[in-house]
Amino acid sequence: MDLSFPRFDRDVELTVLPGDLAVLIVGIAARQAASHTAVVQAGFARGEPDPKLFAPLHGAFNGPMAAMLIRWKEE
């Protein structure tokens, strides 16, 4: 079974989902977020996240991968 994402092909017609489906999905997500389990699990968070996680000094969210891409580009 192939679970990978298909490549974006400009020659293939895009599928448009009905608006009712979007409303249904939003409603499900809202009910799940308001569930007792979600509220309890949200309480497990230990304070504020470290702000350095969202603004790393090297400017990339994945420093080793960014360094590898720079090395690859320079070769």
Précis, in short:
This protein is mainly alpha-helical. The chain has 3 helices and no strands.
Task: Describe this entry's structure for a reader.
There is one protein chain. By secondary structure, the chain is mostly helical. About 45% of the residues lie in helices and about 0% in strands. The protein contains 3 helices and no strands. The chain starts with 18 loop residues before the first helix and ends with a helix. The model has no long low-confidence stretch (mean pLDDT about 75).
Stretches where pLDDT is under 50 for at least 5 consecutive residues are none
- Can you summarize the main beta sheet? none
Distance between the termini: 36 Å
Rg, please?
21 Å
Total E-strand runs:
0
* Percentage of residues in DSSP E strands: under 5%
Order of helices and strands: HHH
Number of helices: 3
- Residues in helices, as a percent range: 40-55%
Mean pLDDT: 77
Shape: flat
Class per helix and strand makeup: mainly alpha
From the structure above, extract its key features.
mainly alpha, 0% strand, 75 residues, 45% helix, flat
Itemize the secondary structure elements and their pairings:
Blueprint: H1 19-33, H2 36-42, H3 63-74
